[in-house]
Amino acid sequence: MNWTLARRTQAMNPSVIREILKVTEKPGIISFAGGLPAPDTFPVEALREATDQVLSRDGRAALQYAASEGFGPLREAVAAQLRAQGMGVDADQVLITSGSQQALDLVGKVLIDAGSRVLVESPTYLGALQAFAPMEPSFAAVPSDAEGPDPEALHRLATAGTVPARLAYLLPNFQNPSGRTLSATRRDELVAVAQRAGLPLVEDNPYGDLWFDAPPPPPLAARWPEGCLYLGSFSKVLAPGLRLGYVVAPRAVFPKLLQAKQAADLHTPGFNQRIVARLLDDGFLERHVPNIRARYRAQCAAMLAALEREMAGLDVRWSAPEGGMFLWLRLSAGLDATALLPEAVRAGVAYVPGAAFFAEAPDARTLRLSFVTASVEQIDRGIAALANVVRCARAQSPDAPAAAALDTGG
Amino acid sequence: MNWTLARRTQAMNPSVIREILKVTEKPGIISFAGGLPAPDTFPVEALREATDQVLSRDGRAALQYAASEGFGPLREAVAAQLRAQGMGVDADQVLITSGSQQALDLVGKVLIDAGSRVLVESPTYLGALQAFAPMEPSFAAVPSDAEGPDPEALHRLATAGTVPARLAYLLPNFQNPSGRTLSATRRDELVAVAQRAGLPLVEDNPYGDLWFDAPPPPPLAARWPEGCLYLGSFSKVLAPGLRLGYVVAPRAVFPKLLQAKQAADLHTPGFNQRIVARLLDDGFLERHVPNIRARYRAQCAAMLAALEREMAGLDVRWSAPEGGMFLWLRLSAGLDATALLPEAVRAGVAYVPGAAFFAEAPDARTLRLSFVTASVEQIDRGIAALANVVRCARAQSPDAPAAAALDTGG
Predict the structure, then answer these.
(1) Which of A109, A114, B261, B382 could form an SS bridge with A136, CB 3.0 to 4.6 Å?
(2) Do B66 and A166 touch (CB under 8 A)?
(3) Which chain A residue lies closest to B194 (C-alpha atoms)?
(4) What is the CATH code of the structural domain delimited by A44-282?
(5) How far, in Å, CA of A253 to CA of A268, rounded?
(6) Residues B364/B407, Cβ–Cβ less than 8 Å
(7) Secretion signal: which residues (chains A, B) (predicted)?
(8) A-B interface: how many C-beta pairs under 8 angstroms?
């Protein structure tokens, strides 16, 4: 049998990260490669209680087919949460999705034609590239400075060519992979430029609640509600295995997203939605999320301290995130994070090379480190091992200054 | 703000049925319109126990991100179940999806290009039309006789035109909406024709376990594993609110379906998958499903008896399904089920007009009745009310023979 596959399948590929994780998930490896939240933070007991309550009180309704928009009280709770962050949101603008990954799929279906220009950050979240890819867009990477995507470059790319860009995808808080957060000023500038160009913004915010010292500035969608789609998730503040996210859409787009949702899987499990609605109703998140913040903050501090200690003199640079799960590292000149990974794994430490996160012009020197699943002791050992790998590679690299010279000078 | 939507959104529409259900779900209406399983059959207590066990034993794993293919033991259990029905299936050919609706979405993404010819039954499952529509196929309805789709017509449509049809979508058991089941002979003939034409078959089987007196013949996929995609679901045998289904694919197609799944929502909730895996492991379905069968069988018999009693002499024809949830009815000549619906609702009874289920040449006289959510007493009253509506309409219809004449002769 000779199967004819749709043309779009040529744009669909196995996840590079998934392949990397297979190699790195060996026993004894200290892995900073995963993108998973720390499982010790999952509130197993609270979920068991909420599940019991849902099944006792509304068991049959929770197990029946349900509305494609989502469970009313959950939509209300999400809207209330976002209003508290400065967004003007009604519950009927909230579409509950099967994780925010599905929101990306629906957004792609509704906004992207084959050949549509889609602007992304550089680097950007790999899962968004994968979600949009089946719609066959042409990706363009917006150049960045230290503050994030460059507003003038965004405007240039939005209006270049004969047809305007279809959307810009932005992850303003503690970005995956770079850990970067956009300042309030940069948010204002980007929104002003998007308004001027009539460029829809897709704002993805899975990590915004995981701040360390202070909440990030209000979302882009608070500044320009009618031009933004806003994506959120319960994966990082409760548990990803429930697969619960949402997209908030202006009334001009909501009905088409809803039709796409209905065609895609009818609705997100009502069982899961009711469990989470019960936890929200109970104020559980207000008690729970501060614990995650404190934990991740301590682990991030440990990783930053280890990097300071171990990478001295190795010409390595890294970000200092103000929240989230990831830290972004740039190796010495002449080193390639993909080429170095097998050596790192042999030395007992794993990361994700940064190249996969670039839609254009990958920076081979970059890599992503997750600080949330390893213990402080593992972080210390893992960063020390990584520093050793870098030191040896520099000693062998013709492009880098001799390691010995730097070590004594560092 | 002026949003530019993707071209495919023009092919996406609000569900007709959904709109109808809004009208018909008024208090006091006896509704045969829904497509929902009977909620009294949902095993709330068994699910509570299974959930408790999953959270106690593997809580953190159940709540973490998981493999896009699905939870291993669930894939194994599905494969074992299908092998018992005569299919040669390995667990690694089973992709767990968020309901079988999502399997349709993934199949559409992987097999359908804009303009691809897609063959469907006449009538066919509306949800499949909706799932495929965003990929912008050109639907062609295969003419049927009393036994189901006509094999020679299938061959003609598969090979007509310059480009072969991309797939044929078939629902062989207790079809939604017609209630029809394909005989073993017809299955052989359709598979032989598809093999000859190199036409992939997408076999959807959400109702196969709900047989009344005897299981349906083995699936098409058992006859031609390398040319069929086989879709199944736990929605009708356990509960739809868990959103668990699957697609079994030959090795030539599986990797692309998996990539599409990963891009669509990363994975189906591991929490839900483990709950159902536990129930299957425990042999729960073998004890549970016979109760659903007995119940639906009795309700179907009650509806058939009511139709015999009430529709006598009204020139109405209906199917006698051997399982499933639906019965298909064809009104007297000159009557239009869509036009008649408001009158039926006024008389306190609701159904879904059949026209929505046709990709081409809708038969306006047809309508779908669900026999699973109404009680026997409601079935009796509802069918009597429906017969009255038909009787009055016939009296007013110029095309139909006078009702009085038929009543005395019936």
Answers:
(1) A114
(2) no
(3) A1
(4) 3.40.640.10
(5) 19
(6) no
(7) none
(8) 254
- Among A314, A371, A24, A13, which Cα is nearest to A179's? A371
Whether B14 has its CB under 8 Å from any CB of chain A: the answer is: yes
The residues, any chain, with a CB within 8 Å of residue A53's CB and separated by 6 or more, are A278
The pLDDT > 70 percentage for chain A reads 97
Residue A391's nearest CA partner among A310, A329, A326, A321 is: A310
Buried b (16+ CB within 10 A) or exposed e, A333-350: ebbebbebbeebbebbbb
Tokens of B298: 């009795």
Q: Chain B: give the shortest CA distance to residue A49, in Å.
A: 9
Query: In this structure, what token pair is assigned to residue B340?
Result: 């008649």
Cα separation, A240 vs B288, in Å, equals 30
Q: How many CA atoms are closer than 13 Å to the CA of B258, on its beta-carbon side?
A: 20
Nearest CA in chain B to A100: B265
Supply the ipTM of this predicted assembly.
Answer: 0.94
Of B42, B48, B256, the CB nearest to A12: B256
Q: State pLDDT tens for residues A25-62.
A: 778 899 999 889 999 999 999 999 999 999 999 999 99
Q: CA-to-CA distance for B208 and B232, rounded, in angstroms?
A: 9
pLDDT score at B159: 93
CA–CA gap between residue B48 and residue A48 (Å, rounded): 9
Which of B5, B135, B198 is the closest to A111 by Cβ?
Answer: B5
The answer to whether A142 touches A119, Cβ cutoff 8 Å, is: yes
pLDDT tens digits for chain B (410 residues)? 889 999 999 999 887 777 777 777 778 899 999 889 999 999 999 999 999 999 999 999 999 999 999 999 999 999 999 999 999 999 999 999 999 999 999 999 999 999 999 999 999 999 999 999 999 999 999 999 888 999 999 999 999 888 999 999 999 999 999 999 999 999 999 999 999 999 999 999 999 999 999 999 999 999 999 999 999 999 999 999 999 999 999 999 999 999 999 999 999 999 999 999 999 998 999 999 999 999 999 999 999 999 999 999 999 999 999 999 999 999 999 999 999 999 999 999 999 999 999 999 999 999 999 999 999 999 999 999 999 999 999 998 766 555 444 443 33
The three-state secondary structure class of B7 is helix
Query: Which residue blocks in A198-283 are alpha helix, DSSP H?
Result: 220-223, 254-265, 270-281
Residue A254 identity: F
Determine contact, residues A277/B28, Cβ cutoff 8 Å.
no
Provide the residue type at A1 as one letter: M
Residue B186 CA: distances (Å) to CA of A125, B88, B147, B190: 50, 21, 7, 6
Contact A272 B270 (CB under 8 A): no
Architecture of the domain delimited by A14-35+289-409: Alpha-Beta Complex (3.90)
Q: What DSSP designation does A277 have? A: H
Among A11-15, A103-107, B40-44, where is mean pLDDT lowest?
A11-15
**Cβ-defined contact of B166 to A64 (cutoff 8 Å):** no
The C-alpha atoms of residue B339 and residue B345 are separated, in whole angstroms, by 11
CB-closest option in A65, A112, A241 to B36: A65
User: Around Cβ A312, how many Cβ atoms within 10 Å?
Assistant: 12
B3 contacts in A (CB within 8 Å)? 111, 200, 250, 252-253
Phi and psi at A120, nearest 5°, equal -135, 160
Residue showing tokens 């503050």: A147
Q: Residue B162 carries which side chain, given as an amino acid letter?
A: T
Rounded CA gap, A337 and A47, in Å?
A: 40
| Two structure tokens written together for B327 | 């019965």
B 41-100 residues inside an 8 A Cβ radius of A: 42, 44, 47-48, 51-52, 55-56, 59-66, 68, 97-99
Query: Under an 8 A CB cutoff, do B52 and A48 touch?
Result: yes
Fold of B13-35+287-409: Aspartate Aminotransferase, domain 1 (3.90.1150)
